[in-house]
Design a protein that fits this description.
Elements: H1 2-13, E1 32-35, E2 38-42, H2 55-68, H3 76-80, H4 83-96, E3 100-104, H5 107-118, E4 124-128, H6 133-142, E5 145-149, H7 154-163, E6 170-175, H8 187-196, E7 200-204, H9 219-222, E8 231-235, E9 245-249, H10 251-260, H11 262-265, H12 272-287, H13 289-309, E10 320-326, H14 328-340, E11 343-344, E12 347-348, E13 358-363, H15 370-386
Parallel strand pairs: 2-11, 4-5, 4-6, 6-7, 7-8
Antiparallel strand pairs: 1-2, 3-9, 8-9, 10-13, 12-13
Helix pairs in contact: 2-12, 4-12, 5-6, 13-15
The structure holds 4'-deoxy-4'-aminopyridoxal-5'-phosphate.
4'-deoxy-4'-aminopyridoxal-5'-phosphate (PMP) binds next to helix 5.
């Protein structure tokens, strides 16, 4: 078993070793976490709307626990299909103005389940190079041809669609907002190519569901492209502050998923109280648009202040703001120095991002205040100068 030590050593040598950090006690201050006895401003959370500690959601979950008990006891196709599921799926389908919604245990399982249910070795999947790992894993699991196109490069996608034009089914899949870069997919162009090549279009709105749109329906809705997207995936683990995921599609496609998506069929249903909590979170997502407004104001001022300070940050208007530093070691040192300054901002390294693009992925939350964000920019600039990233 010496190979285990050797492999770990190899990982360590390239500053890629990961470790579980100390557990994070909850602090009574939204937007902050506790670490090493200190309270840190949390710029690494996906709790975009600040709902993860919402008392209304907690109360709904507690009430549901008392009625439904702790666990579902079985998968949904056996005896785990409890009432909160039907209520949530109806509410999600109505919110999304979709034929039907199906809830999965999480976004990872939704993506691997959907892709492996609808394509196989006779088919091809056209996937953006920066798509989330769960999409990549779903494609591998499906055994379809994996045609990866360069990030947002529609010419390359067209080339690959031509190359594989004789495949039985063609699935184009993309994140709507990219998880590590915060930029958007060119959904209009993707919709045109889907039509031209008679392909299926699947969009993962993990980082845009709850955030874009008058009611948080997502980016494809805002762009007027909802009807062009055949499979719409979103997760409850980010803007909703909860856990779980949804897939919206036609009645017939959802019916197929119930029959073929193995991560849905062979896994226990979520605890009913979690499902109830998600439905309560949906109420806040839909009704409290001030959370979205505040999030965009904070993101825009944070992004422009970092640019003014001389940093290069990614494109887009999303709450995901990457500070690309290149070397793994620089990203780690940057993150440690920020922690000294009272900011939790995690270094993201390969394989999560391409080699040579290690970064600090800042993500903002409506739980923060403008003063906290302004203060964070000053501290980030100080670290930038200390480490020679800013000249
Ligand atoms: N898709 C994307 C684009 C994501 O960023 C993530 C989570 N990082 C997932 C899917 C997986 O979602 P979950 O955390 O609910 O498993």
């Amino acid at each position: 078993m010496k190979w285990i030590e050797e492999e770990l050593h190899e990982i360590e040598k390239t500053s890629l070793k990961r470790r579980l950090r100390e557990t994070v006690p909850i602090v009574d201050k939204p937007g902050f976490i506790a670490r090493g006895g200190r309270t840190l401003l949390n710029l690494s959370s996906n709790d975009y709307l600040g709902l993860a500690q919402h008392p209304g959601i907690v109360e709904a979950m507690r009430d549901s626990l008392l009625i439904e008990g702790a666990g579902a006891g079985a998968s949904r196709l056996v005896t785990g299909n409890r009432k909160p599921y039907a209520l949530l799926e109806e509410a999600i389908a109505e919110w999304q103005r979709s034929g039907k919604a199906l809830v999965f245990a999480n976004g990872y399982m939704a993506n691997i389940g959907v892709i492996s249910a609808i394509v196989n070795r006779y088919d091809a999947v056209f996937s953006d190079q920066l798509n989330h790992a769960s999409i990549v894993d779903g494609i591998i699991l499906s055994r379809a041809e994996h045609a990866r196109y360069r990030h947002n490069d529609m010419e390359h996608l067209r080339y690959l669609l031509n190359k594989h034009r004789n495949k039985r089914r063609k699935l184009i899949v993309t994140d709507s907002v990219f998880s590590m870069d915060g930029d958007q997919a060119p959904l209009h162009e993707l919709a045109k190519l889907k039509q031209e090549y008679n392909a299926i279009l699947m969009v993962d709105e993990a980082h845009s569901g709850g955030i874009y749109g008058l009611y948080g329906e997502g980016l494809s809705h805002v762009l007027g492209l909802k009807h062009m997207v055949d499979i719409h995936v979103g997760t409850f683990s980010k803007a909703f502050g909860m856990y779980g995921a949804y897939v919206c599609a036609s009645d017939t496609l959802v019916n197929l998923l119930v029959n073929k998506a193995r991560s849905f069929i062979y896994s226990t249903a979520l605890p009913p109280a979690v499902v109830t909590g998600i439905r309560k979170a949906l109420d806040y997502v839909v009704r409290e648009s001030w959370r979205r407004e505040r999030l965009f104001e904070l993101s825009s001022s944070f992004r422009s202040s970092l640019c003014e300070a001389g940093f290069k940050v990614g494109d887009g208007d999303s709450p995901i703001i990457p500070l690309i530093l290149g070397e793994n070691d620089t990203a780690l040192r940057f993150s440690h120095a920020l922690e000294e300054e009272g900011i939790a901002a995690v270094a993201i390294r390969p394989p999560t991002v391409p080699k040579g693009t290690a970064r600090i992925r800042f993500s903002l939350s409506a739980a923060l205040t403008p003063i906290e964000v302004r203060d964070a920019v000053l501290k980030i600039s100080k670290v930038g100068h200390q480490l020679g990233v800013l000249k």
